[in-house]
Write a structure and sequence with these properties.
- The protein is built from five helices and four strands; from the N terminus they run E-H-H-E-H-E-H-H-E.
- It is of the alpha/beta class and 125 residues long.
- Strands 2-1-3-4 form a four-stranded parallel beta sheet.
Length: 125
Amino acid sequence: MKKIAILACKMIREQNLCPADAKCLVALSRREGEFERYRNDDVSIVGIMDCGGCEGNKTRAICSLLLFKTQLAALKENIDVLHIGTCMMKFCPRKDDIIAAVKEKAGIEIVEGTHKYAPPTIFGN
């Protein structure tokens, strides 16, 4: 079984702009968006963590991942793939620095994105 985690935007999660991380979880269950790559695989989400917040920088995201890894080690778990949430891919002004740092430090596959459910416009069809 492939075990995955998601790195999501702290602001979007804290302000409940994506309630319960539903879009990522539904996309995985439907194997849509960047989760389509697992169409024929048995996968599970081991965790969803946040980037550390807008006031921070790439170091906060790395610290968040390190704390997550420590928690997983205590549970005798690990992850195979880390997805960078669509919330970060679409809205984070620091995403390039954060993604570069995560790719340098993670030591596992990094996938940029999760779902395709972000609307293209606010009021249009």
